[in-house]
């Protein structure tokens, strides 16, 4: 008899599982370590040493021959190694590709933020330049002050001239203008 579940909002608790269950992340790390080991010169040198020893013992030591000349057992060992190494290396490459894709996405996001920041700063600098175009500079102040001093000097001279005409100015400037000594 099949029992119906009325409440499907929660998953079933710990039922019977069929098949092999493993941690994919742990298996991925294991496959990467195998791929890193198989891809080293140390592994190739060690494997070459083992093959030379295997063949030497099976050819030279007649009493120890466990794998005679066509070396079928050695070929079987290499076939088994290749059968396991290839998928492990592919798994490690897939994981590396996923990490590279993640790093590329992070780099793209960082580049987009940098571009946005740069554009913002460029707009701010342009706004500051426009605002500073209306600001008085020291050069502008010097020019206006020189005009004022020229105008003030002209007014002062014209004012002294009026007092000479009336005969009234008794300040030091007037005595110098008239040629009197102090």
Descriptive report:
- With 182 residues, this protein is mostly helical.
- It has a domain at 24-107.
- The protein has helices spanning 24-38, 41-60, 72-133, 138-166, 172-178.
Taking the alpha carbons of the first and last residues, their distance comes to: 135 Å
Estimate the global geometry from the Cα principal axes: elongated
Beta-strand content:
under 5%
Taking all Cα atoms into account, the compactness measure Rg is 48 Å
Helical residues, percent:
over 70%
Low-confidence runs of at least 5 consecutive residues: 166-182
Mean pLDDT, nearest integer?
Answer: 82
Secondary-structure element pattern, one letter each: HHHHH
DSSP summary: helix tally: 5
Q: Let me know the largest β-sheet.
A: none
Class based on secondary structure composition and strand pairing: mainly alpha
Count of strand segments: 0
In short:
The chain has 5 helices and no strands. The protein is mainly alpha-helical.
Task: Give the helix/strand layout.
Elements: H1 24-38, H2 41-60, H3 72-133, H4 138-166, H5 172-178
Helix pairs in contact: 1-3
Protein traits:
182 residues, mainly alpha, 5 helices, 73% helix, 0% strand, elongated, disordered C terminus
């Amino acid at each position: 008899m099949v029992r119906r579940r009325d409440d499907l909002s929660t998953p079933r608790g710990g039922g019977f599982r069929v098949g092999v269950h493993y941690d994919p992340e742990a298996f991925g790390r294991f496959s990467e370590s195998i791929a890193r080991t198989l891809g080293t010169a140390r592994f190739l040198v060690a494997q070459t040493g083992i093959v030379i020893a295997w063949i030497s013992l099976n050819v030279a030591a007649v009493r120890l021959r466990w794998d005679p000349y066509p070396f079928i057992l050695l070929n079987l060992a290499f076939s088994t190694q290749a059968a396991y190494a290839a998928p492990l290396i592919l798994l490690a490459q897939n994981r590396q590709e996923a990490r590279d894709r993640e790093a590329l996405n992070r780099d793209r996001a960082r580049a987009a933020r940098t571009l946005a920041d740069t554009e913002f700063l460029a707009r701010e600098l342009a706004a500051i330049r426009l605002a500073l175009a209306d600001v008085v500079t020291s050069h502008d102040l010097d020019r206006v002050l020189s005009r004022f001093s020229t105008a003030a000097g002209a007014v002062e001279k014209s004012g002294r001239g009026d007092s000479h005409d009336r005969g009234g100015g008794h300040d030091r400037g007037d005595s110098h203008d008239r040629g009197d000594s102090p």
